[in-house]
Design goal:
Helix content: 25-40%
Structural class: alpha/beta
Distance between the termini: 27 Å
CATH architecture: 3-Layer(aba) Sandwich
Number of strands: 11
Strand order of the largest sheet: 3-4-6-9
CATH topology: Rossmann fold
Oligomer: single chain
Length: 291
């Protein structure tokens, strides 16, 4: 993944943010180009590493398309942090994908917390390449941080929804568009969403809380496909919300519970309701003429 400040399609929405003219600096960087983050990180006390390619399927080679950028990109950023004396903490955006790709189904009485780690062998056997990339990247980050005495904090959000800044669809919001069309990209009867504003706040709290440590899961409650359809139809009667595909069989479920006690300890007491997040997602999509 290469980012260039000259690519106006990827930067105009950032430069339009309040205060961007005074406080925002953009740097060219490439996850696979070692040392390309040095200018951006120089002088910083905290580094947020949020970049990683996202895809359910790959075109040809999962190692090249997903795994190398995720793992090597993470290590490149961390290695640069060891060279910059001002850096005191690194906050890595991982994923619930690195927490849970269970080999056995979990039920409504099971509780998932930060002690859960995805088995990479299981993800590889199932050809869940994105899951594998996030799992390997987080594992590599913890190993590198331990060996180099880096104060590393990891956030593990679920599927992120809510208003978008950029003028194009990102992966997680595209899932909402697919659901609006009656499709089921994850082949599941149940979903969990976490609002982007809550995820952003968790990152800020991880920065501001000196005692923050380890991993922090942040995810939403279980909702069914029918719940999603009803919410979208209620808020947007002008949109044609398709019924879900009735031909889908052997659907997976995510009816287990997720413990949010640790992320709440950062001072996040209330989370954006799923209904509000879905509403604001579609409002944002309509504003940008994406639906």
């Amino acid at each position: 993944m290469c980012f260039s400040p000259e690519d106006r399609k990827k930067t105009d929405h950032l430069l339009a943010l309040d205060g961007a003219k005074e406080r925002l600096k953009l740097f060219k960087a490439d996850l696979l180009d070692e040392g390309s983050f040095e200018l951006a990180i120089d002088g910083c006390e905290t580094v947020f590493h949020t970049a990683s390619p996202v895809a359910i399927t790959v075109k040809t080679d999962p190692q090249v398309e997903l795994i190398n950028p995720a793992v090597n990109g993470t290590i490149n950023v961390l290695r640069t942090c060891t060279k910059v004396s001002s850096v005191k903490r690194v906050i890595l955006t991982s994923s619930m994908a690195a927490v849970l790709a269970p080999e056995t189904k979990l039920g409504p009485n099971d509780v998932v917390d930060e002690t859960f780690f995805t088995n990479p062998s299981f993800a590889e056997e199932r050809k869940q390449w994105y899951v594998l990339s996030k799992t390997l990247a987080e594992d590599a980050a913890w190993r590198f941080a331990k060996d180099n005495e880096i104060d590393l904090i990891v956030l593990n959000p679920g599927l992120v929804t809510g208003p978008i800044l950029q003028p194009t669809l990102n992966f997680s919001v595209a899932v909402i568009v697919e659901l609006m069309k009656g499709k089921n990209p994850f082949n599941t009867t149940h979903h969990r969403f976490v609002d982007v504003r809550d995820v952003a706040l968790a990152h800020v709290k991880a920065l501001e809380t000196p005692s923050a440590n380890g991993r922090y899961i942040i995810d939403g409650p279980v909702v069914t496909i029918k719940d999603i359809e009803n919410v979208l139809r209620e808020f947007f009667p002008d949109l044609c919300i398709a019924d879900r595909n009735e031909d889908i069989t052997e659907l997976n479920s995510v009816t287990f519970n997720v413990c949010l006690d640790k992320v709440k300890s950062l001072g996040i007491i209330e989370f954006t309701p799923t209904e509000t997040s879905l509403r604001d997602t579609v409002l944002s999509l309509k504003e940008k003429c994406l639906v």
